[in-house]
């Protein structure tokens, strides 16, 4: 093993042996080269006042060389904020701004010990970093039966982890804490589980109530007390889009500092929150009471970023940072939030109006982009999807046998009634 | 194994069993989900003429929802080319434009069968995709002793591959074909090798002559004839920056269609060629005479992109595409090329002028961003680097015991003589 990797492993082991045990084989092997080209370059940036001949880019007139056909259209930004490499961990000012935002929007983080957010190529990249650093072949990844399909590729196929699903809702359509508890405690013998918590949930648009959030936390503590090391990943992709009286914070705040066998990791980003999906700007943040653990995990994260994409897109990071700093940002974001909330409320009003009876129920939703219909027996989701698409020109997503996901995020409020009328008509026709 | 993965494997096996044998365990397991959310969304894009409620973004007024604080500064571009997700394989128009450019700049590709370039988060990402799809623990990755340090993390640490180095230059400072041949033929028992060919080379700035290129190709054919399956990766990061009478094409063109045991893969990108390092736009392209092999490898590549970053940055892809389409692009690029060539020529003239005697020789260079001094015995590279940095404010990169890398890409032509004078002075002082 590389001596630098071993050194960081030793620091983690000394501070918290459970976290050391959570690392995958790759998580132990990976490190960020301190004596390599990047760190010699960094040293030169500080000291090479006369000539810096270390830089792996071309320069001209004291800045990055660039073509005017590009710069002319991006003239609102300085070449230095567009063309050079962003650091592997992201632009420092962006990381600082995101950290401030995180604390402002999650008051439960006050006084908790957690690291500086590390910039990722958006949320999938954050999840794949977790998979690389923590998932070995056969490790259990415990998440609900209503989930984002890409977990399967990221954790299951790529890392050979074992997927363990539990039922998200009980018969009364509340969070199924007993099922969650059972799925976790089943991992007692293995002594390890990776637990993604995705709220607002994709595909259902569900966020737990405050009381349900407390139940989730207490199940996690019970599993940790039972000797299971838990890598708990809050997948906060749709953070902030809370339209009702649910939790309005990430559970990351409650989990930080909670138990030595719980390693909380926050995965979030600008993509959905700031309506910049294609920009690919996300973050991964670790919580630990030990500064050495935070530094070691940051180094290992930079190592895996260096080994997979080297760095994320610099223009995107600049655009997001600039937006976060703009005095009009909050007001403009609030305006869009109200549009989304209007759509969610309208969907709920329609579903509760009594006009659609006898073909479906629906899963709880109060947040995010989506809601899911649960179709009655005799109405297969895929058949309904096909009929809606080809008879009515209406696109929906079929999930499993019974569920139809509808993204209200992309339908104007005044069209929602017509949309659900058509879905209802299709369901009636299929059910006959 | 997933049935879709198995289906693609079977198509590869039927068309070329050697390519099937080259795949890693992960390479066999990975697939792009055809019946998942992305493909249902794609179907809806075609047929949902009335309402498309599949889209995982928010829309408004027929386009992606966005904040004016961002759009006001990017007004030269349409919101649809910035905010939505780019497809996992990249913007189709960008891929088509890059393919045209590839053929225009590599006439040896004429009439050869090769796939559509797939967009990556730049060159490291392309290399990490090769590592994921083709490198298993213990597989040999054969590349020269003068190399880019990140190969070690990407292939060695991440995938557990065995690094096999050969001497890039012989005693006469020519490409060391016998050493390359020996290193390859040593893999006969294992029957497999991954062979990155990085020309212009980082760190030396060396590109083989046409005759040396032919030698490299004939060594590869000899190894393939000996029964070794070869994943040959042309790492064309610095493509196009050819300042002398070397090869001016990627060896990918010569390798396409050459031998059933040779799978040529081209890794290239806009980052260095178009002076947009931080944009993170690269490409991976496979060559095969069989269309099924090309489709299967494209599907597997999309699968691994989906599982790691989901998609690359959309704004960057838009900016690069726009530049490629601009009528002024070629002329502006040529202008920058001439500046770089002026710097390279000046460095060579200085080194050959006779004014620096007795402290160093230099490795052949004729291309790219860099050149490497080979310091005489008694002048340790790290000691010289430190002295230059702290005494003279000059930043350089020390590589191993004897080599000092100097990036002429970032030093204006009129400063090069002063720079080398200082390096010479430092070397004399160290050597005393």
Automatic annotation (TrEMBL), chains A, B:
Residues 69-419 form the Aminotransferase class I/classII large domain. Signal peptide: none annotated. GO terms for biological process: amino acid metabolic process. Keywords: Aminotransferase, Pyridoxal phosphate, Transferase. Its cofactor is pyridoxal 5'-phosphate. GO terms for molecular function: pyridoxal phosphate binding; transaminase activity. Belongs to the class-I pyridoxal-phosphate-dependent aminotransferase family. This is Aminotransferase class I/II-fold pyridoxal phosphate-dependent enzyme. It comes from Saccharibacillus brassicae.
């Amino acid at each position: 093993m590389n001596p630098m990797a071993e050194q960081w492993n030793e620091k983690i082991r000394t501070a918290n042996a459970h976290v050391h045990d959570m690392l995958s084989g790759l998580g132990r092997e990976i490190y960020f080269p301190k004596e390599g080209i990047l760190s010699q370059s960094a040293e030169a940036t500080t000291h090479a006042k006369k000539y810096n001949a270390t830089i792996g880019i071309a320069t001209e007139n004291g800045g990055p060389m660039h073509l005017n056909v590009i710069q002319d259209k991006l003239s609102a930004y300085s070449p230095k904020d567009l063309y050079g490499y962003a650091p592997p961990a992201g632009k420092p000012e962006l990381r600082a701004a995101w950290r401030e935002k995180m604390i402002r929007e999650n008051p439960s983080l006050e006084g908790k010990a957690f690291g500086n957010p590390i910039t990722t190529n958006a949320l999938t990249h954050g999840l794949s970093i977790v998979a690389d650093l923590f998932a070995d072949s056969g490790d259990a990844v415990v998440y609900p039966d209503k989930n984002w399909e890409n977990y399967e590729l990221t954790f299951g196929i790529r890392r050979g982890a074992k997927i363990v699903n539990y039922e998200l809702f009980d018969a009364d359509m509340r969070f199924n804490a007993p099922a969650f508890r059972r799925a976790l405690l089943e991992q007692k013998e293995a002594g390890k589980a990776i637990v993604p918590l995705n709220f607002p949930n994709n595909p259902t648009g569900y966020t737990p109530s405050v009381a349900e959030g407390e139940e989730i936390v207490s199940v996690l503590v019970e599993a940790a007390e039972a000797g299971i090391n838990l890598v708990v990943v809050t997948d906060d992709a749709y953070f902030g889009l809370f339209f009702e009286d649910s939790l309005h914070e990430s559970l990351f705040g409650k989990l930080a500092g909670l138990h030595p066998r719980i390693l909380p990791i926050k995965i979030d980003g600008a993509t959905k929150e700031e309506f910049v999906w294609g920009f690919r700007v996300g973050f991964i943040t670790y919580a630990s009471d030990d500064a050495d653990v935070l530094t070691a995990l940051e180094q290992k994260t930079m190592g895996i970023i260096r080994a997979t994409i080297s760095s994320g897109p610099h223009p995107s990071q600049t655009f997001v940072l600039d937006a976060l700093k703009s005095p009009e940002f909050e007001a403009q974001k609030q305006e869009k939030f109200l549009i989304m909330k209007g759509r969610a409320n309208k969907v709920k009003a329609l579903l509760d109006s009594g006009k659609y009876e006898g073909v479906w129920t629906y899963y709880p939703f109060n947040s995010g982009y989506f809601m899911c219909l649960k179709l009655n027996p005799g109405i297969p989701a895929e058949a309904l999807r096909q009929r809606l698409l080809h008879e009515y020109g209406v696109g929906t997503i079929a999930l499993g046998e019974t569920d139809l996901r509808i993204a209200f995020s992309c339908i104007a409020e005044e069209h929602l009634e017509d949309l659900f009328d058509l879905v209802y008509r299709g369901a009636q026709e299929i059910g006959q």
